[in-house]
Records
---
Amino acid sequence: MMAKNHGVESSGEGRGKIVSDLSSPFDSFPEDCISKIVSFTSPRDACVAATVSKAFEYAAKSDVVWEKFLPLEYASLVPSSRHFSSKKELYFALCDEPVLIDDGTKSFWLEKASGKRCIMLSAMNISIIWGDTPQYWQWITIPEARFKSVAKLRHVCWFEIRGRVKTRVLSPITRYSAYLVFKKTDSCYGFDDVAVEAGVGVVGHEASTRTICFEMDVDNERDMSWIYPEEREDGWMEVGLGEFFNGEELMNGEEIEMSVLETRDLGWKRGLIIQGIEIRPAKIQ
């Protein structure tokens, strides 16, 4: 079966695959040689290569290929109780089933088409001003969340959230986007057409900022310079905070900080449920 958004087949063998009966000039190569060549491509390309011929199909599903696409620490990411028939099956499991890491405060998975690393920082792993004051924020458990606890906004006027991620836990030479993942309760108010400042940047350097808005008044027109939330496939909402490029010069322990601030209007607000901040490869425009 082909993935809906990425054009990469699932781990199920024999479902939705189109394998050519034509021969290829490379068919005379040893299978391990073809596998080695394919391992220098990407998961998407490996799935395409498998359609070239029978020889490529067998070579492209070998462990030699798919182990190359797995993170170096993959063994520590999988519970010992889980067993996989191949590295390809393990790869797709890490794409489709995010793994909780760092005592359950972060979620890790791979982007299916590229194998790039993705991270979600839970609300427990980010800084929420007044987050430890029950009068202002409440920590609750809901079944649709990835994490044990999420943060429910009860009543604040000073709205400030900050999260940090080390660049070395992300894929190098990759442009990333950061998103705040949240829900709105029926009693949500105080965010209608309110400009909220979002920032993303390297700690110690000036951040790139943009204006986001959690809720638009239906009677008003959209401000085209603002960023508005979109609904996710998992039922949550997300709003883009910004992008950054994880270049080689950032791989020596630097941190990226993401922020969400409404500290100017200072009107009372309530009714957001914060799951966390998600960092994943940016879409190519």
---
Amino acid sequence: MFATKLTAVFAALAAAATAVTAAPAYASTFTSPKTEIVFRPHVTSPKAGDVWPAGSVQTVTWDTSDIPEESKNQTGLILLGYIEGDDINEHLDVANPLAVNFPITAGSAQVKVPEVTPRNDYVVVLFGDSGNTSPKFTITTDAGSSLPSISLPSITGTVTASASTPASPSVSASVSSVAVPPVSASVSTPAAPSVSASAAAAASA
């Protein structure tokens, strides 16, 4: 009898323990799960095939049209990496971020392209809540390498240069003598008055 009661007590304790343990699981079926919204901003620049000269300043852009309300106060982070072939490893340079602490709502950030080994499989990864990777693009050695190459046409043949003394132009100046019209100047000598002999004799007397 005692053994039967003891067995019943143990059974009651075990049932109580089972009820306590099961209670949270039973209650959880009526609790709404918390939804985590992860924002992964879509990178719109650089585009596939873009060329960034090392040392230049470029602009990374991303789509801000679908930023959830709870993510609008976040700051962003941009890292440079590269992807070889179909490898999933992005080889991110976490020690040298291209940009940090910018508003994720800005939609763009300027970055200075580092002096890195030239290759055509670089990517940038923009982090909001989670990272989003750009298409592959190229980084060249320096800014000068981005200028288009100009091929000058080759000129064949002999060029003869003869230096002849240019003939001085002859200037003929003809000075015609100006005819001076003759000037006739006639000076009339006044005639001495004639004195009659009779008057002269009278004067002498």
---
Amino acid sequence: MGRGKVVLERIENKINRQVTFSKRRNGLLKKAYELSVLCDAEVALIIFSSRGKVSEFGSNTSVPETLEKYWQHRYSSQFNNIAEDDTQTLYQEILRLKAKYESLQRSQRHLLGEELETLTVKELYKIEKQLDRALSQARQKKTQLLLERTEELRKRLELEQCFQAAQGLGDPNMEAGNEYNMPPSQANHPLQQPSIPMGYHQFIPQERVTEARVNRGANKRTAGWL
């Protein structure tokens, strides 16, 4: 009589579960060893029991070295796949940018009046509208800059005038001599006669000149007689 079919489900009996675990664990470790010997394969096997006890098997090297080799292989494979996808994406982006660059170069030549022979009336009208719009914007910008410059110069001139006025009002010497519109030295002495500047010749009548000569001659004769 043959064995019945084993149902793959959790064994409820704790003792039977532990016995089954031990048997199958040993059988799995034996199969891993046989695979490494027969096929010259690098095998690493790690088993954790329900209680947390670990059982492991390493064929040629230790289990940590085999795991490290596994992670390196996995990451390199993922990186290669990502690199291939990125390369394809970058190539498509380069083609798109190249086409856009050529289109911009062609539009710039058209705006400069070059290569207009192959354009239709509609395309020429579109270029004309673009030039009119650009010219209008340039004029508006120029007017705005001129107005801003004019306003800046006006404010600077007002500041200079205010500064000069503040200097004139704050000078005490100018306030002291402002009463008679004279320098400060003469304003402090109102009874002092103004001095005659150098190079000034006072007018003397002819009669006074003749009288002075006669008096001077009489004085000389008197001095000689004495």
---
Amino acid sequence: MAPKSSLFKQTLITTVFFLLAFYALFITFFHTPLPTSDPSSSDVDVEISCLENLHFPLNQTDGSDFAKKVKVFMYDLPHNFTYGIIQQHGLASGGSPVADVTTLDYPGHQHMHEWFLFSDLTRPQSDRLGSPIIKVTDPEEADLFYVPVFSSLSLIVNAGRPPGSGYSDEEMQEELVEWLRGQEYWKRNNGWDHVIIAGDPNALYRVVDWIKNAVLLVADLGRLRTDQGSLV
């Protein structure tokens, strides 16, 4: 009998992948382009030709297994958005810095889905047989782009460290937006085909207006306005 934690992890990953697949199906038929997310340019009429640039699995007709699955490109984010936040959590708990942050284990808490998806997509494809998601290394092949920022853990670190301690969740959020703005594939569709996990109700709160075009995987919709989030 599998441990409860293992069953929970498998169920959570399967649920996230199902939602991504459902999203790909929905926008193939019903999506209409979204305006720019820049709140300072609301008077500018910007048309984004999203459907012309995307190639979802339902458009494939060659019958191959590769064509039938949702293809995800995971960004290789700078460590200050991923493993570096794990180290900051350790430092806030009285730990010491390590030379290689990629050796650190993610601390357990209620928003570990951001770690489960990240760790699943870092595994070799040979270990992911049967998954409805295929990780691709060529962004031109991708249906969706995953931005694996540990936004909820960052919020926890921020609450655990006093002001002036050297870490700021707000600064991390702003640096993430600046990084995304420099990415070719973010600019191509203004983030519409990008996936970001913001599990904690206050994760990425400072920049949500700048990333609201993306697929935001949230734990609740109570903190989001109707122009910031929806069920699909």
